[in-house]
Amino acid sequence: MPEEASIRIGVDVGGTFTDFALALPQGIKSLKLPTTNNAPEQAILDGVNRLLGDNNISPDQVTGFIHGTTLATNAIISRTGARTALLTTAGFRDVLAQGDESRFDQYDINITKPEPLVPRWWRYGIPERLSAEGNVLLPLDEDAIGAIAADMRSENIESVAICFLHAHTNPDHEQRARDHLQVLLPSVAISLSSDVSPEIGEYSRFSTTAANAYVQPVMSAYLERLQSGLTDQGIKASIFMFLSNGGLCDLDTARRFPIRLVESGPAGGAVFAGNLARELGEEEILAFDMGGTTAKVCLIDHGVPGRSDSFEMAREHMHRQGSGLPARIPVIDLVEIGAGGGSIAQVDSLKRLHVGPTSAGATPGPACYSRGGEAATVTDANLLLGRLAANDFTGSGINISVDRARDVIAEQVGKALALTDSAGAAAISEVVEEQMAGAAREHAREKGIDLRRRSMVAFGGAAPLHAVNVAAKLGINRVIIPQAAGIGSAIGFLQSSAVFEISHSIRVLMSCFDASLFNQHFAAISRNVSAAVEAAAPGIPVDETRTLFMHYKGQGHSLAVEIPTRDLTDDDAVLLLSAFEEKYISVYRRPLAGIDVECVGISLRMSSNEDLLPVRNIINTGPADVPDTTDLFDLMENDYANVPTMSRSKMEPDTIFQGPGLIKDDGTTVVVPQGYIATCYDTGHLVITLQGDQA
Prior knowledge:
By secondary structure, the chain is of the alpha+beta class. Helices cover about 30% and strands about 25% of the residues.
C-alpha cells in the first residue's frame, strides 16, 4: 500500500445503484453495488468495506469521505418524509395551497398542481404581524404557543416549519417561537424560514422551509446511522455532504439544511462534466447523465455549469416548468426526468407505449435481476437487444436472466403492440431516448440555445448505451464518453471544493444608495457563509463572490450583477449602476432612460480554493476478458447482427473502433452505432463522431 497520502472515497447513492470512487495516489478505482433502498447506508458500508479490503487499505488511512444522495429528493417525490406542521402568521395558513396563482398551462382548466407537503389540518396560525420593513405591527402571542404545541404533540408531529410574514426582514418572532417550541417539544425538529430561505416571496419561502422541515428528521437519522457505521468500521476521516450548488458541506450544515441536498447526485455529475470540458478545451457542451432511475441534462459553458437560485421539486408534468414545488436554494441548473435503466415500460388502453417515470429501482429491480421484478424496463430491453450481457454485472451480486427479460417484454409490450420481443425492446429504447432528447430540447429552448453547436458528454451507468442515439435526435455530432463514465457523479464529488452561499432580500432604490446598509447586510450573511465553508475546509483559503440582484423600478425580473468583494462606499453608486447597465445591455440590447434602478437582493458565495482531482489514471477501465463479437439487434434489418466488441482497457491512445459494435467498460457499455467511429484520445476519453466527420 502507498505511503501516507490522500486516500479519499466518493459515494453517490442513486435510486438503483450506489457508485464508489476510491482516489488513491496512483489513480482511481471504481465500484458499483445495488442500492439498499430501505437502509441506504448499508450499501455504502458494504462497499467501503469491500474497497478497503480489496486494496489492502486500513480504515484509518482514509483522509476524506464525500457523499451525495437522492434520499431527500426521493422522500419529497414519494411523500415519505416526516409528519410536518407549519406555524405561520394568523390568516396565512393557506399560502402553501394557494401558491403564487400562476398556471403552467393557462388553457388547461384541469391542470394538476402538486399537493402541499403539509396538510391543512397541520397548518397553524398564530397572532403576530410584521410590516414589510420588519417593524412590529402585532406582537407575537407567546401564550398561544402552548396550546398549539399540545395539539402538535397529540398529532405526533416530528418536524415544524416556522414561516412568519416578512420574517426575512426581521427574524425575531420566528426565533422566539422556536425557543418556546424547543422547550415544549424537545424532540421535534424546527426549521425557520429566516434561516432556510431569507428572501422575499411568501410562497417560495414557505415551500422551501416546509420541504426542509419535511426531510430533516429523515436525513438527520440517516446521517447519524451512516456516521456511526463508518466510525464502527474505523474510519476517522471527516464526512462531507455534496450540495446542490456543486460544493461540499459538513454534516452539521447538512442536518440543518437538508433541502440543499435535493440535487446533490446530479450536481456532482455536472461538476465532473464541467471539469472534463475544461480539460479538453470544450467551450460548449451538453452534459447527459443517465443512471438507473433518472436522466439529467445540463448546459455547460467554458467549463462552468449553469447556476440558478431556485429549483422545482416533484413536478406533476415531466417537462412543464411551474408544475412542481418551488425551492429557493442555490443549485446547478439542470433538468431531471424519470428515465433510467429501471424505468418501467407500459402500454396503455390506446396502445401507446410509455416508459417511466416509475422505476423498478434496485428492489425488486428490472425483471432480468431475478429479484421479483415483474415489469419490463429499459435494462431488460438493453439486455434483450444485446447491448448488455449477463457478465456485465459480475461483482454486483445480481444474477442476470435474459429469459426473464424476454418473457416480460414479450408479454407486456410485444403482445400488446403485435411486435416480436426484440422489436418490443427496440420500441422501449426508442421511446426512452426520445423522452430524454425531448427534455434536452425543452431545456435548451427555455435558454434560447442551439444544441447543434455543442458536444455531448455522456456518463452514468446507462448513458453510454443511449448517448449517440440521443445526440443524433438533437443534431449533435460529437459525443464524449469520459474515463470512469459509470461513476461520473462520485468522481465529481472528489473534484469539488467547499462551497456555500446565502441570498437575502432587500429593497433599495439606487438613487437612495446607502453603502453602510449594504455592508451591514453582507457582514451579517458573511458570518454564516464563512462558518459553513470553514467547517468543511478548515484553514483553506477562500474565494468570495458578491452579487446584487437589480432591475429597473417596476420590472418583475432582476439581473444578477457581480460587485467588488470589499466594503462599499457611497461613491460606489456610480460603479454599481454602470455594472447593471452593462449587464442589461448585454441581455436586452439597450438601457431604459429616466427610470430608477432598484436593488431587490444580495448574495454572497464563498468557496475553498483547493487543488482539484484530475480525471486521469483510472485504474480499472474495463473487463479483462471480452468476447471478440456479440449479437446486437439491428432495428432496420429487424434481426441480430454479429458485431465486434472490445474492452476499454485494451484501447490505447489513437485506437479507432468502427461501429456497429460495443466497448465494454467498468460499470457501463458504450454503444457505437452503424456509421459512427469511436476514437480513444491520449487523455483516455472516447470521442464518438460520424464516420468521415473526425476532427
